[in-house]
Amino acid sequence: MATILAIETSCDETAVAIVNNRQVLSNVVSSQIPLHQRYGGIVPEVASRQHVETLNAAITQALVQANLGWADIDGIAATCAPGLVGALLVGLTAAKTLALLHQKPLIGVHHLEGHIYASYLTAPDLQPPFLCLLVSGGHTSLIDVKDCGDYEILGQTRDDAAGEAFDKVARLMGLGYPGGPIIDQLAAQGSASAFPLPEGQVSLPEGGFHPYDSSFSGLKTAVLRLTQKLQAQKLQAGDNSLPVADLAASFQETVARALTKRAIACALDYGLNTIAVGGGVAANSGLRRHLQQAAEVHNLRVLFPPLKFCTDNAAMIACAAADHLERGHISPLTLGVQSRMAISDVMQLYNVYG
Ligand code: KG4
Ligand code: ZN
Questions:
Q1: Among 6, 3, 1, 2, which residue's Cα sits nearest to residue 76?
Q2: I want to staple 108 with a disulfide (CB 3.0 to 4.6 A). Which of 63, 80, 91, 237 is the partner?
Q3: Is pLDDT of 236 > 90?
Q4: What is the Å distance from ligand 1's center to 178 Cα?
Q5: Apex 26 CA angle, 25 and 29, nearest 5
Q6: What is the pLDDT of residues 306-318, one digit of tens each?
Q7: Can you list the domains of the chain with their CATH numbers?
Q8: Which residues make up the environment of ion ligand 2, defined by Cβ < 5 Å?
Q9: Residue 68, SS3 per DSSP
């Protein structure tokens, strides 16, 4: 299998990795989180500028870590959609320049396909078809993985993504950014049954609920109302502290239960016996516990990549690119970036040879 150098700059991590045959030879991730923390969220222009500052050093570091030179690299990959346009442009332009300079094929990669491929890094024996539960800061989807480049969305969020809900709830509780890891840590000290919260089901016009779609914005609003009510009660009693651990645990429990129910129902209905979880929220301890337990009951295999491959990284992008290159899927040097792109359209990124 080909040795791929991949660049990931779709959001707030500048990442470069080299992967061969699903083996990670180097994995450099420079996080911008401290830079964005003071704004309480990602500032796109700041992200693009920081990618420009960091990328060259990250590429050199990836080659040095892998002990390889350009002659050893068979293809250059970059995330080209979806994501922040300015941030994506930095990575894709660098990849195009390197491809031209070193006469290597260019492979543009869909960011969500990368998150799916994180599972292959952990379980190289994994074969489609399987179900991917993709839960990140921007997406919450249940994807039928049929083959490399062949995906069908079976369920998704109608509003906020799961990670976005964690970030917004953390912000409204005054906990800082990014919210997921902070809520996860706090939840360990709280009671998950302290506050019952709505699971965010999506009603169907004909009655009943969509079995696989979610809506997390109602849950976020419920936490906001609850927080305001608790604050008012506390103030009356001359106390301004909030039961943040109980709130975090109850919120996390609700999200984990909702995602687990939908993923299990979807896997069983479609006869898919493996659920591979991807995206930053796959790091969540509540989701891991719930899904693992439910999967055992239903005799399903569940795969959680290690934390470093759950959040944004370039190893997952390189892994996806290697599969595409092997199938003769190469991107034209005229490839552009897109802020939005359905995963079912990934084959639009390639000229197909061979
Ligand atoms: O996949 P990712 O690194 O970037 C996107 O493609 O969006 O995901 C980032 C998201 C953030 O919303 C962050 O709060 C969430 O993943 N996250 C978590 C945890 N670690 C990161 N959410 C819940 N629990 C965690 N432990
Ligand atoms: Zn991501």
A1: 6
A2: 80
A3: no
A4: 7
A5: 155
A6: 999 999 999 999 9
A7: 3-119+311-352 (3.30.420.40), 125-304 (3.30.420.40)
A8: 136, 312
A9: coil
